[in-house]
């Protein structure tokens, strides 16, 4: 008997449970946009080459265009719609708004989700390709503009808002550091 | 009563739609829900030239969810024999499915419509199309000059003054160099997307475009509809850069919505955009500069060759970029095209100026080297008093002020002109500069400004905000014209029912809309008696700037700028990194410094991307593109972009009610040349072929 | 993309059984390459067996002082692991040089080894390609090939292997473990990828239906002084045009141990054993580094537009080994 090509499943997104039947071909990105009406997550290339569809999966950033919805069952998904605290913007969102870290806004949700995760990754001591000394006893590198640029490179911005995005990420990281 | 003591224009404001954009609430074209929505998927040709022999639609129509397959046998007929809003006929590729001819690789041959996008995609991939293939020719190179002919695009094809050969012959120094730029693609982050539906006898299209009047007019013409029965909306647009006019996706969506009588959405894939969304033609340019020993130009020749399709003339007017720049007794410029079996190119951010300024400004740098004078002083020396070819006065020209301010801030005075002598570890360091210019213009618009009964004001102007910040800029402009704070002004844009208006293009959008909004708002302000009651429906004043713009005196009207770049080059690997960049612009009055700076820097980043990364490679054997995706076509990523500063000198346009010139494009102009000139200063090698890839740097023993 | 079945596996034998050697079935790891290939039509599986829940996500020391890395360890976790950063820094650097933060969070070690070439002709199903459609031809040989192979290729295929991680694993003599219905097996990375020859569509020596369960790194003291350098056409988030994993141990100015592997120059991570042999026991200086690189690259067969890779790799060998020699002298 040929295997079933669709599944009933429950997706957990921004703390809500959604039960739906998906065609196995449906990506997490399309499920969010077409089925759950969560259109804040953007489709830029649909091939993992631009980062516009970045969401958090179990707290880690991931491109939702290469994640099948059926394979996302059991994971906690956070999208741009779920990062603010009610009316209170997330510090990264606020910094993007204040410092004009975008132009057309289409890559922006992905940039913001990526930046939120980047700050966590850095706080956890993860090195990057911009880190001179990656030995664990060297300690976490300072979050310099160069580190931010390398760590944000999976998010393309065709308008070229990179300079203000880097400033926004740096400010948000400082805000978070001050709050911690 | 509120009195505005300080104007809004000129002070920084965050974007009025900014909160929606950072929370994901802003909905773009493919994100507006519709009941009973069907999904269309375009099928593109897999040959570069020939005829469609057969389409096996029967098997596809039996596939799950498939509703219809449109192709040249059954698609609604369209009429593309018209001239649109921008004064040109449409690219024939929008006349979808009208005949069996295949014009280029990736030519649209069918649309599959299904209940879900997954079903539509699989059915589109399963559709077997057979072709009678014919030999194709996509081989663009400087050698095609013999088959080329000049064309007047948005600038005249050929402009000549003086005896070029005589002046070259009497020049003490002659620079004669060829430059090339590759095929470049806009690649806005948001793919082209449209949903079409018929509602109450009207065609409604929710689209991502640079002008809803423009697209609505094209669709009315194509489908022979009363223009009043077509409504196009495009509230948020994820970038355009020239690519978002009428394209195959809207036409396909309208056809399918008409046939199925239900809403149909068509979204281009990223790969399809490389065939259907337009692009910047590759260019092969030759610049000859003849000068006296002190650097004074006697002759300036700029020849540019670009390609277009076999069915439509589009010229990338690269040589036109030279016409307003430098004085010379003999001044010859010509932009020519050669027709090949390729998609039709289109406007892409600073069409003409972007590639043209690379060639001209790199050649100027070579001349400065040959004459042994500073590149900035060379430009000062050749600064014209009036249009070098036209003889017309400049509306304002503050190029030298830009260079002086830029030189001061960049530290240019300390520069050692010798190439190849600075090192930082494995990196050779160099700096370069180049001039920028872009035409300043305005086109008519017809906004309405309403005084509401609650004391607020509504501006209805069919502008497009493709990331420029136009929505915010217009709120500031209207607030000043009305004499109220910006929080009492709301701006509605991007709906063809708001009335005809200029598109977001040619760096003319914000200026054109702001002029018209100012006119209406000032008239409204004067008509409002202090303390008088406003009726519930409000009081509305509508303007039309056609007459005022038509009355503008003939002048050379341009923005100017000076670009500075510092680069590092690793001669062992060929890697080039830009370390810092500065642009100083004289580009009219700056409405919103926060967003303006972002946009100018964005243009400069396009220049870096053009100089070092972007290149679409056309395979001569298949006629298609190699690596047509964002992994194969590199645009600059975060790590490529250093800290970049953009600033401006005072330069209000004397003939514009707000003083605006336009800043959408000037940021890219000259930027690639500044980078390339800096690479020469770092290495001593001239790179005349973009992009300056590692392999080219690595293998450039002498001149590359 | 055709319709397909989906099964999630929770143990290794279950995963192998679910796949059942079905030629139309694929294991799904992070999906960063497979799902993309399904979208472009290069892969059209009828069944996906999701292996992300398998208990193979640990990095553990081996009894002999090496390291065993589970197949479902993500690239991110691999690069962040203290033991990897301390003892095999070039491996961490190689992983960090690949893809993006998002993709590294998804991509697994097993999937990374099995990723397919990024040759543009391979990815375009309307194009000929011997790897995707055996016998259809290789347009790259006469077409666009400025980022194709210069070592170990054939007239049938000049595509390169895109992995960065694999280059470091090749340098450090990694061994790949797998499981089949008949039991477990092992393949040294040196034997893992098949020569191109006339069969570029046959890429690995894994038995049909085999599931990669992990990679073992033998104890490699020289690896503590190692680095990975990657050259690409933008500063990040791009595949290599040339890369190198290098490790060096120097005593009294003489090379005592050395490891070299190249990326983006061959159909597999290219272990530069000829260069290594040439270097052992010689003085650690730029002249010897260059001579060793030349020996390795003597067999290079560049195409008209990728000859720069020979120069690039030579320069990378000299630059990286020189830096490592300086480090070793400290």
TrEMBL record, chain B:
Sorted UniProt keywords: Molybdenum, Oxidoreductase
Any one GO molecular-function label of the UniProt entry: oxidoreductase activity
SMART domains per record: Ald_Xan_dh_C
One Pfam family it belongs to: Ald_Xan_dh_C
Keyword Membrane: no
Source domain of life: Bacteria
Domain Aldehyde oxidase/xanthine dehydrogenase a/b hammerhead residues, every copy: 23-135
Name used for this protein in its record: Putative xanthine dehydrogenase YagR molybdenum-binding subunit
From TrEMBL, chain C:
Keywords from the named record: Oxidoreductase
Record-given protein name: Putative xanthine dehydrogenase YagS FAD-binding subunit
Every FAD-binding PCMH-type domain range: 1-222
PROSITE patterns registered for this protein in UniProt: FAD_PCMH
Domain of life: Bacteria
PANTHER family for this protein: OXIDOREDUCTASE (PTHR42659:SF1), XANTHINE DEHYDROGENASE SUBUNIT C-RELATED (PTHR42659)
Pfam families per UniProt: CO_deh_flav_C, FAD_binding_5
One MF annotation (Gene Ontology) recorded for this entry: oxidoreductase activity
Coiled-coil segments: none
InterPro entries documented for this protein: CO_DH_flav_C, CO_DH_flav_C_dom_sf, Diverse_Substr_Oxidored, FAD-bd_PCMH, FAD-bd_PCMH-like_sf, FAD-bd_PCMH_sub1, FAD-bd_PCMH_sub2, Mopterin_DH_FAD-bd
Gene3D superfamilies: 3.30.465.10, CO dehydrogenase flavoprotein, C-terminal domain (3.30.390.50), Uridine Diphospho-n-acetylenolpyruvylglucosamine Reductase, domain 2 (3.30.43.10)
């Amino acid at each position: 008997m040929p295997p079933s090509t669709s599944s009933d499943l429950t997706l957990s997104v921004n703390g809500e449970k959604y039960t739906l039947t998906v065609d196995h071909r449906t990506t997490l990105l399309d499920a969010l946009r077409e089925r759950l009406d969560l259109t804040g997550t953007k489709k830029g290339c649909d091939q993992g080459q631009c980062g516009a569809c970045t969401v958090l999966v179990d707290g880690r950033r991931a491109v939702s265009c290469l994640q099948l919805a059926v394979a996302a069952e059991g994971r906690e998904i956070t999208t741009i719609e779920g990062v603010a605290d009610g009316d209170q913007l997330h510090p990264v969102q606020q910094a993007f708004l204040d410092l004009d870290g975008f132009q057309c806004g289409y890559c922006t949700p992905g940039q913001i989700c990526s930046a939120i995760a980047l700050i966590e990754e850095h706080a956890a001591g993860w090195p990057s390709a911009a880190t001179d000394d990656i030995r664990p006893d060297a300690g976490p590198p300072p979050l310099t503009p160069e580190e931010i640029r390398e760590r944000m490179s999976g998010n393309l911005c065709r308008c070229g808002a990179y300079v203000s995005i880097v400033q926004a990420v740096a400010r948000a990281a400082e805000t978070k550091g001050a709050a911690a | 009563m509120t009195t505005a003591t300080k104007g809004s224009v000129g002070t920084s404001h965050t974007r009025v739609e900014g909160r929606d954009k950072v929370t994901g609430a802003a909905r773009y074209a493919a994100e507006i829900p519709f009941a009973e929505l069907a999904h269309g998927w375009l099928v593109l040709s897999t040959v570069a030239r020939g005829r469609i022999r057969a389409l096996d639609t029967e098997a596809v129509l039996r596939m799950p969810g498939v509703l219809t397959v449109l192709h040249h046998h059954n698609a609604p007929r369209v009429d593309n024999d018209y001239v649109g809003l921008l004064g040109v006929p449409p690219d024939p590729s929008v006349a979808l499915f009208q005949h069996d001819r295949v014009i280029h690789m990736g030519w649209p041959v069918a649309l599959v419509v299904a209940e879900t996008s997954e079903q539509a995609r699989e059915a589109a991939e399963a559709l077997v199309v057979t072709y009678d293939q014919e030999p194709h020719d996509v081989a663009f190179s400087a050698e095609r000059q013999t088959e080329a002919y000049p064309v007047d695009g948005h600038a005249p094809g050929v402009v000549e003054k003086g005896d070029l050969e005589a002046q070259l012959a009497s020049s003490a120094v002659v620079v004669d160099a060829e430059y090339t730029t590759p095929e470049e693609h806009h690649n806005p982050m948001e793919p082209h997307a449209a949903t079409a539906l018929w509602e109450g006898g009207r065609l409604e299209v929710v689209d991502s475009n640079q002008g809803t009047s423009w697209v609505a007019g094209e669709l009315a013409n194509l489908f022979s509809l009363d223009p009043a029965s077509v409504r196009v909306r495009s509230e948020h647009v994820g970038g355009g850069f020239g690519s978002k006019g009428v394209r195959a996706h809207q036409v396909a969506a309208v056809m399918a919505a008409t046939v199925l009588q239900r809403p149909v959405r068509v979204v281009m894939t990223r790969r399809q955009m490389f065939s259907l969304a337009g692009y910047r033609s590759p260019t092969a340019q030759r610049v000859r500069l003849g000068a006296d020993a002190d650097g004074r130009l006697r002759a300036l020749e700029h020849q540019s060759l670009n390609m277009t399709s076999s069915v439509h003339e589009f010229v990338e007017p690269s040589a036109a970029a030279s016409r307003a720049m430098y004085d010379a007794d003999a001044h010859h410029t010509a932009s020519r095209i050669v027709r090949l079996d390729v998609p039709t190119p289109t406007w892409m951010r600073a069409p003409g100026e972007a590639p043209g300024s690379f060639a001209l400004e790199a050649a100027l740098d070579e001349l400065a080297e040959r004459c042994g004078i500073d590149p900035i002083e060379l430009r000062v020396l050749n600064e014209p008093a009036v249009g070098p070819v036209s003889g017309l006065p400049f509306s304002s020209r503050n190029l030298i002020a830009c260079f002086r301010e830029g030189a001061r801030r960049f530290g240019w005075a300390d520069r050692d002109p010798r190439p190849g002598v600075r090192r930082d570890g494995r990196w050779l360091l160099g700096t370069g500069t180049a001039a920028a210019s872009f035409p300043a213009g305005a086109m008519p618009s017809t906004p309405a400004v309403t005084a509401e009964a609650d004391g607020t004001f509504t501006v209805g102007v069919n502008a497009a905000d493709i990331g420029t910040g136009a929505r915010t800029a217009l709120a500031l402009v209207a607030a000043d014209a009305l004499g109220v704070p910006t929080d009492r002004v709301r701006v509605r844009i991007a709906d063809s029912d708001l009335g005809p208006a200029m598109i977001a293009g040619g760096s003319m959008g914000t200026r054109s809309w702001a002029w018209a909004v100012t006119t209406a708002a000032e008239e409204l302000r004067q008509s409002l008696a202090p303390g008088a009651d406003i009726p519930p429906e409000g009081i509305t004043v509508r303007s039309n700037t056609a007459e005022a713009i038509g009355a503008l005196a003939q002048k050379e009207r341009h923005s100017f700028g000076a670009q500075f770049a510092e680069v590092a080059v690793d001669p062992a690997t060929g890697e080039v990194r830009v370390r810092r960049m500065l642009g100083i612009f004289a580009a009219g009055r700056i409405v919103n410094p926060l967003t303006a700076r972002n946009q100018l820097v964005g243009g400069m980043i396009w220049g870096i991307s053009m100089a070092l990364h972007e290149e679409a490679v056309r395979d001569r054997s298949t006629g298609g593109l190699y690596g047509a995706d964002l992994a194969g076509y590199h645009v600059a990523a975060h790590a490529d972009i250093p800290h970049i500063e953009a600033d401006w000198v005072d330069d209000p346009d004397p003939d514009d009610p707000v003083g605006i010139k336009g800043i959408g494009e000037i940021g890219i102009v000259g930027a690639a040349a500044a980078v390339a000139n800096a690479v020469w200063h770092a290495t001593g090698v001239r790179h005349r072929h973009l992009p300056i890839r590692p392999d080219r740097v690595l293998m450039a023993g002498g001149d590359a | 993309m055709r319709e397909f079945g989906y099964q999630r596996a929770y143990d290794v034998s279950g995963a192998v059984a679910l796949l059942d050697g079905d030629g139309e079935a694929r294991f799904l790891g992070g999906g960063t390459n497979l799902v993309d290939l399904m979208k472009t039509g290069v892969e059209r599986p009828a069944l996906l067996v999701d292996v992300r829940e398998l208990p193979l996500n640990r990095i553990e020391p081996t009894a002999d002082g090496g390291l065993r890395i589970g197949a479902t360890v993500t690239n991110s976790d691999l690069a962040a692991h203290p033991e990897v950063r301390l003892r095999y820094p070039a491996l961490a650097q190689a992983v960090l040089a690949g893809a993006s933060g998002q993709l590294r969070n998804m991509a697994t070690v097993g999937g990374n080894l099995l990723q397919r070439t990024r040759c543009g002709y391979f990815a375009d199903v309307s194009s000929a390609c011997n790897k995707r459609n055996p016998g259809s031809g290789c347009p790259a040989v006469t077409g666009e090939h400025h980022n194709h192979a210069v070592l170990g290729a054939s007239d049938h295929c000049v595509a390169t292997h895109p992995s960065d991680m694999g280059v470091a694993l090749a340098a450090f003599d990694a061994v790949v473990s797998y499981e089949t219905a008949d039991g477990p097996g092992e393949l040294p990375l040196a034997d893992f990828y098949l020569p191109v020859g006339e069969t570029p569509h046959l890429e690995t020596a894994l038995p049909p239906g085999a599931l990669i369960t992990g990679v073992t790194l033998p104890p490699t003291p020289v690896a503590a002084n190692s680095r990975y350098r990657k050259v690409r056409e933008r500063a990040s988030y791009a595949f290599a045009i040339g890369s190198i994993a290098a490790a060096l141990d120097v005593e009294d100015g003489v090379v005592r141990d050395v490891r070299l592997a190249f990326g983006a120059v061959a159909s597999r991570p290219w272990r530069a054993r000829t260069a290594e042999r040439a270097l052992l026991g010689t003085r650690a200086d730029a002249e010897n580094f260059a001579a060793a690189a030349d020996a390795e690259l003597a067999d290079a067969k560049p195409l008209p537009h990728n000859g720069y890779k020979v120069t690039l790799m030579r320069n990378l060998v000299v630059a990286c080994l020189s830096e490592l020699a300086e480090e070793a002298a400290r």
